Amino acid sequence: HDQRDFEFAREFALDIIPVITPSSDWIAAHDGAGTTDCATWSEAFTGDGAALNSVNDQVSLDGLRVVEAKALIIQWLTQQQMGTATTNYKLRDWLFSRQRYWGEPFPIVYDEHGPIAVPEAMLPVELPEISNFEPATSDDPDALPSPPLGRAEHWIMTELDLGEGPKQYRRELNTMPQWAGSSWYYLRYLDPTNENRFVDRDVERYWAGSDAGAVDLYVGGVEHAVLHLLYARFWHKVLYDLGQVSTPEPFQRLFNQGYIQAFAYTDERGVYVEASEVVERNGTFTHHGEPVNREYGKIGKSLKNVVTPDDMCKEYGADTFRMYEMFMGPLDASRPWNTRDVVGVNRFLQRLWRNCVDEHTGASRVVDIPIDDDTRRILHRTIASITNDIPVLSFNTVVARLFELNNHLTKVVETLGAAPREMVEPLVLMCAPVAPHIAEELWRRIGHVDTIAYEPFPLHDPRWLVADTVELPVQINGKVRAKITVAAGADQSVIEAAARGDARIAALLDGATVRKTVVVPDRLVNFVIG
């Protein structure tokens, strides 16, 4: 019941004895004779089914499903002392072994018979101090490549007593990649000072005891799904099988973020050049005076279009950089990077600061004065919207709502000459998750002593989410000709009267025969004329 074995048997005219009964649908689709005779099958049956042809004088598997049959086979072999149950773990070693210095050393040594695991009592194996981190080279063209640790001659050979008396062993020179340490760091965070275990059992169960997984949310790009996530799940499953952790899966929820994309440039050879050194003039692009071609792709070192966070933070500040990344678009979509757009986010933060703090004196502009109903309605709608958007990771709309609320605050400040506390404090609190540094500073400037980090998030009042008025389109023969504003929930007669009272609609209806009037409360008005 393996396609490769099936093809091998067909090639050499070997008998094939089925031991799993295919479903009737499968037989109808793959067996011209409509039987369980493998000789007439077009391919191997690899699905689940009942066992057959599986009886000896001691045990019978016939009639059992595949999983049940396997369990009985293992039980019988164990009882007959012909084998034991075991679990095999398989990992792509070509991604796990690295020929470099940085990384955890493998606790493996070699003697004339092969590899031997270093006993636990001799762990950890520590990297030696070396000054040259380049791979070792040789004049011998047939010599195998040697990683940087090949230069540590005093470290390569070590004398250990592994049960046969003191003996010379050769150490493994490859190191593990970052996937090794990062595959279980979330567990170490729970108990970082424990010198006896990677995490105390009770501590792990307290923090990560959910049946769904240890970590509530895992956010990573596409590469993470096949690299870090793969190794973290592998690591965690092994620990679970060993009884070291209480959950079979490490993460409850996976969210894949999109790529950050930017322009990249290639010269006439097709070689990528440093994007930050490219000059644009009249729609053409040059690098050190030579023309280059522009293309679009993900940001990466190989494309030489990396945007360095340190440079962005130095020029615009960490809050601007952070907010811009959130504002670029939906988190799960690939998004274009444009440094010029960062300026808009920076201006928002500057305007927010000026609304709250006098830029000449540094004094707070926040006062305890009431706000009008329209402002209060905008405020509470913003709170409600952001409260809903944050849990679903819709950070771009969070930032957009903050922009809108701050624009309204700017108008209020221009009118009143001061910023109402009732409006400012919720705004600063909502800024804290996306711009924590300026929010913390503003929180102090407007009169608070304690940090904003532990302040409760503002709550909206449902009363202010209900609209007092609604704007309705007025159509004539299905085409919008005007818009009217009426009280929310107004009845049909009031809405029709308001529509007929609009000057533009009245002029269009003058002398016309209205065959039908359609009024959908809080939605639209349509006059059918002819």
Explained architecture:
This protein starts with a helix and ends with a strand. With 530 residues, the protein is of the alpha+beta class. It is built from 19 helices and 19 strands. The model has no long low-confidence stretch (mean pLDDT 90). A 4-stranded antiparallel β-sheet has the order 2-1-4-3. Strands 7, 8, 12 and 13 form a 4-stranded mixed β-sheet that branches.
Question: What spatial form do the alpha-carbon principal axes imply?
Answer: extended
**Would you count the extended β strands for me?**
19
Low-confidence stretches: none
Helix content: 25-40%
Query: Count of DSSP helices?
Result: 19
Q: What about the largest sheet? A: 4 strands, antiparallel
Rg, nearest Å: 35 Å
**Helix-and-strand structural type:** alpha+beta
The mean pLDDT is 90
Distance between the termini: 75 Å
Strand percent estimate: 15-25%
Strand order of the largest sheet: 2-1-4-3
SSE layout and pairing:
Elements: H1 3-11, H2 24-30, H3 66-79, H4 93-96, E1 108-111, E2 114-117, H5 153-156, E3 157-161, E4 166-171, H6 178-182, H7 185-188, H8 201-208, E5 218-220, H9 222-226, H10 228-241, E6 254-256, E7 260-266, E8 272-273, E9 278-281, E10 284-287, E11 290-291, E12 293-298, H11 309-316, H12 318-327, E13 335-336, H13 342-356, E14 366-367, H14 373-389, H15 395-416, E15 419-420, H16 421-431, H17 436-445, E16 469-476, E17 479-487, H18 492-501, H19 503-509, E18 514-520, E19 524-529
Helix pairs in contact: 11-12, 12-13, 13-15, 14-15, 14-16, 15-16, 16-17
